Every structure is written in C-alpha cells, then in structure tokens.
C-alpha cells in the first residue's frame, strides 16, 4: 500500500470525512459487484450472535449514521428491536481497506423508508409483501404462490409496473456510529489501524447528537 494511502499521522479528529471518501471511492471505482455491501451482526435473546450481508443505502457523514433496509419481522429485525445495537463491517478487498462500525440502531422515519421503497424495482416491491422473511418455507413453488397471491390482492396480476405501497413491516434502519475503526493494508502485514469513539445522546426516536471523537491508533 503506498504511503499516501495509509492513515494520516497524526490521526484526524473526525473520522467521518475519511470514511465518506473511502465509501465514495469504492463505489466510484466499481472494483467489486457490491461496494456498498456490509456484514451486519446482531444478537439474540440467548446471547448468540448472527451475521448476514446487507447493503448500505445511505451514509450521512456529517451526523454520523448509515441506513439499510429490511423486513422488520425478519430475524435481524426482531433482534434489533429487542437489542438495539449492531456492528457492521465493510471489506473492500481490491482497495486494501476495511471499515468497522458499531452503535445503537433506530427505525428510519416513514418518509425515508417510503422514498427508498418507491425507488426499488417493481418485482422487488411485490416481493417485500410476499416474503415472510426468515420463516420456514415448504418449497420454491410455495414462494411463487405467495407472490401470485400478493399480485392478486393488490390487483397486479398482469402488471409489470405500477404503484405498490410500502408494507408496514418493511423499512429502514439507522445505525448511529459511536465507534468506527479504519483499517488500511500495509506491507509485510504491518497494517494501519485506528479506532475513533464518541458518546451519543438521544434527541428523539430517530436522531442522536454526538460528542467529540477520541482517536486511538491500534496495533495491526
């Protein structure tokens, strides 16, 4: 990794502009199919962790949160409702970079969820109604039947486009960042790694305000 692509020394007081640049760079270079993919970890009532890949659909760097969308009744949705903290990891292998985020989660405001849902492909909007996400399914044919039943109920049997309302059980999740770790690959496995932490204060059901970041350089 060239020296100018390692973390600066001293570390910046605010890590979010650097994270935003890395995120934008990964998307602009298009070096992997889903540069906005991230591993999301949650925890269940039994203390067991679970992880899956989701897509980061929004980064609000000046406030310090990201947004992804899901079925609120899915396993991750239920776990986040019961234990509203999460951790995510972005890994841009070709760019030799990794970002880890941790923090509390809240549901997105309805307009934010409505806007994104309306932008999705028609079949994806129908599918959000048809899939009882994370629940047992008898067969692939049963899933097809569920899709057809939704089309019939919404009057969309022959449609390939049209208005599909957002299901009440589907929407956005905001992860407010109180810990962020930036990692950049170095020669001889002497990587560059640093963590920033801050205290968050809840303002309302959707929003936190953040204190000053504290930076710590870490051994790789």
Which keywords apply here?
220 residues, alpha+beta, two-stranded antiparallel sheet
Spatial shape: elongated
> What's the order of the H and E elements?
HEEEEHEEHHHEEEEEE
| Helix content range | 25-40%
Give the tally of β-strands.
Answer: 12
Distance between the termini: 14 Å
Helical/strand content category:
alpha+beta
Note the total helix count.
5
The fraction of residues assigned to DSSP E strands is 25-35%
Overall pLDDT score: 95
Enzyme class: oxidoreductase
Pfam families: PNP_phzG_C, PNPOx_N
Protein name: Pyridoxine/pyridoxamine 5'-phosphate oxidase
Organism: Steroidobacter gossypii
Brief rundown of the structure:
The protein is an alpha+beta fold. The protein has helices at 16-29, 75-82, 110-119, 122-130, 140-153, and strands spanning 37-43, 49-55, 58-60, 65-71, 85-92, 97-107, 170-176, 179-184, 192-197, 200-202, 208-210, 214-217. Keywords: Flavoprotein, FMN, Oxidoreductase, Pyridoxine biosynthesis.
């Amino acid at each position: 990794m060239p020296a100018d692509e390692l973390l600066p020394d001293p570390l910046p007081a605010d890590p979010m502009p650097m994270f935003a640049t890395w995120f934008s760079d990964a998307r602009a270079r298009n070096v992997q199919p889903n540069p906005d993919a991230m591993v999301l970890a949650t925890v269940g009532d039994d203390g067991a962790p679970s992880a899956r890949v989701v897509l980061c659909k929004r980064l609000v760097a000046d406030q310090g949160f990201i947004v992804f969308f899901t079925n609120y009744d899915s396993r991750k949705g239920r776990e986040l409702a019961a234990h509203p903290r999460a951790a995510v990891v972005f890994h841009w292998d070709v760019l030799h970079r990794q970002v880890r985020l941790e923090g509390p989660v809240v549901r997105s405001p309805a307009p934010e969820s409505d806007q994104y849902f309306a932008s999705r492909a028609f079949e994806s909007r129908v599918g959000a109604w048809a899939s009882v996400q994370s629940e047992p399914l008898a067969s692939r044919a049963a899933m097809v039947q569920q899709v057809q039943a939704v089309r019939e109920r919404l009057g969309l049997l022959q449609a390939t486009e049209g208005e599909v309302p957002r299901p009440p059980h589907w929407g956005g999740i905001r992860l407010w960042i109180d810990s962020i770790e930036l990692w950049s690959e170095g020669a001889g496995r002497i990587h560059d790694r640093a963590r920033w932490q801050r205290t968050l204060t809840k303002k309302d059901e959707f929003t936190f305000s953040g204190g000053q970041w504290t930076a710590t350089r870490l051994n790789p």
